[in-house]
TrEMBL record, chains A, B:
Swiss-Prot/TrEMBL keywords: NAD, NADP, Oxidoreductase
Phylogenetic placement of the source organism: Eukaryota, Viridiplantae, Streptophyta, Embryophyta, Tracheophyta
Entry GO CC: cytosol
Domain D-isomer specific 2-hydroxyacid dehydrogenase catalytic, residue spans: 47-326
Homology family: Belongs to the D-isomer specific 2-hydroxyacid dehydrogenase family.
The organism's place on the tree of life at top rank: Eukaryota
Record-given protein name: glyoxylate reductase (NADP(+))
Keyword Aminoacyl-tRNA synthetase: no
EC number: 1.1.1.79
Entry-linked Pfam families: 2-Hacid_dh, 2-Hacid_dh_C
Top-rank EC class of the record's enzyme: oxidoreductase
Organism: Carpinus fangiana
Length: 329, 329
């Protein structure tokens, strides 16, 4: 480490990310923290691993950029680590249980992304119901003058929308859909006193009573493939699935089959099980809207998550309560 | 006319439409009215004109399917006509002034389409801001695994949305956008006591103070090209235009130029000046969403407009007040 670094009194923070996922506000972080980023700070010829082991002993705080995993193997390298600051709403890439066992706190993006993700869920639902993307393709292909009228679409108002996961995102989705005249119900681990909508403890029961399911719960061992064959059958052939949570919340292989057989009405996906891979069968379907995991990709969301990350780091280094700690379920 | 028709006591209604625009509920109309449709009722060898002149003298009520024009030349053929029942919200295809001069009442679709059109305006706005259709194309083209991350889009919440035309559709748009956290203002002929939003008497002033314009006013001589060069300049290079009214409300040629030069941020069109022709320059633009005039194309809207048409016809034939009379401006 250079002499300059030795006299640097900014707290040390390790940036943990995949090479292709950079945070847009790195310079602003640098003004408060000494940021170690193996992908941009290493000296020529050094491997990221070598760089890491050179600095690992003193690192107390780590920022992790989804989907870069934080598990026992990484934690073993960082004996002083006391906080993992996440930059996403979902923390399925972080082994929270293992962190907690080692006395390491974990934070997430809090509500920073909730409004943008909720907006995107509504956008996907409107697109599937009203065939906006399909109509756009129809016009751009030059088909309108030749083929004339386009097939009917379906009204949003009056639809029974089941929200799977009534957290911060789910409640923003519900607020928006109420303005369109939808009838909202929900499933979550527990009934929420703050949510004035019918509660279903079982997702299949919710699906039977819904025209649309919006999936926005956290991905955990318990919610993996929460949208399975039984739920799809319960939702029925006119039913629509919107997924803005994580790909693995839906049994994608089953859903593709249901769509191919016409046993489900349509779907909007912002997330997939094996991103960026998307099942090719979906490409030919007009009742499906595909999006490259971008529900949070606005400058406004990035600014909001920067504030949350800064607040968590500042709280940590001044021994105050963290802004958005993740509790173990 | 057959002997059967002579003994038919159902009131006579003339259907006025282009061959390619049929109403979906014709059979249900038939159960209450004797519907004369030159495109389906004529006997072999007869021209629509000959058919019309054979029945014209007794026709008191006419249903017109947009965009089939109702003007002096048609009215001249129908000396007994007393009501023109429109099936659309906009009546720019009907010469309302000429009808009124002849003592002929005109009705429109009332509020039947307002919710669906408002939903569609929000869908187009979300699509332009969040690049849903563009993202869909990106995924379907197989670009995601190759090109990786997609450009940032823009958050709906906080946007200043100027609504041009605060009628039934405009107020439904405002209600929806409020749930997304937008700041709504509006322009219309007159300030509306029922609209709790800032009012601008001048569209340019509204544009200067807006990030987005949603155009949903009636097309009249006064509103033709209401979105012109000056308004586009006032809206500015990040501004977005959504048009769910009529194509000719926007100076399309100018707008295409502004888009091509990057002097406006993006646009969503459900309507065009020369439908179904769409300016080819738009096909290559990613910041534009094109839709084949389908904001009302849901079974729910069709059912609602059927109810309005039936109510107007029944009121007319029983000398009661019409449900949705169009007043001359």
């Amino acid at each position: 480490m250079s002499e300059e670094a030795d006299h640097d009194h900014r707290p040390l923070v390790l940036m943990h990310r995949l090479p292709s996922f950079a945070l847009p506000f790195r310079d602003r972080l640098h003004s408060h923290f000494r940021v170690l980023d193996p992908h941009s700070s290493i000296t020529a010829g050094e491997t990221p691993q070598a760089f890491l082991s050179r600095h690992a002993a003193s690192v107390q705080a780590l920022i992790t950029v989804c989907p870069s995993p934080v598990a026992a193997d990484l934690l073993d390298l960082l004996p002083s680590l006391r906080v993992v600051v996440g930059s996403s709403a979902g923390v399925d890439h972080i082994d929270v249980a293992e962190c907690h066992r080692r006395g390491i706190a974990v934070t997430n993006a809090g509500n920073a992304f909730s409004e943008d993700v909720a907006d995107y869920a509504v956008a996907l639902l409107l697109d599937v119901l009203r065939r906006v993307s399909a109509g756009n393709r129809f016009v751009r292909s030059g088909s309108w003058p030749q083929k004339g009228e386009y097939p009917l679409c379906s009204k949003l108002g009056g639809k029974r929308v089941g929200i799977v996961g009534m957290g911060s995102i789910g409640s923003e989705v519900a607020k928006r859909l109420a303005a369109f005249g939808c009838r909202v119900a929900y499933n979550s681990r527990n009934k929420k006193p703050s949510a004035p909508y019918p509660y279903y403890a079982n997702v299949c029961d919710l699906a039977v009573n819904s025209d649309v399911l919006v999936v926005c719960c956290a991905l955990t061992d318990k919610t993996h493939h929460i949208i399975n064959k039984d739920v799809l059958t319960a939702l029925g052939r006119d039913g629509i699935i919107i997924n803005v949570g994580r790909g693995a919340l839906v049994d994608e292989k089953e859903l593709v089959q249901y769509l191919a057989r016409g046993e489900i009405g349509g779907a909007g996906f912002d997330v997939f099980e094996k991103e960026p891979e998307v099942p090719k069968e979906l490409f030919a379907m007009d009742n499906v809207v595909l999006s490259p995991h971008r529900a949070v990709l606005t400058p406004e969301s990035f600014e909001a998550v920067f504030e949350v990350i800064m607040a968590n780091l500042k709280a940590f280094f001044s021994n105050k309560p963290l802004l958005s700690p993740v509790k173990l379920e």
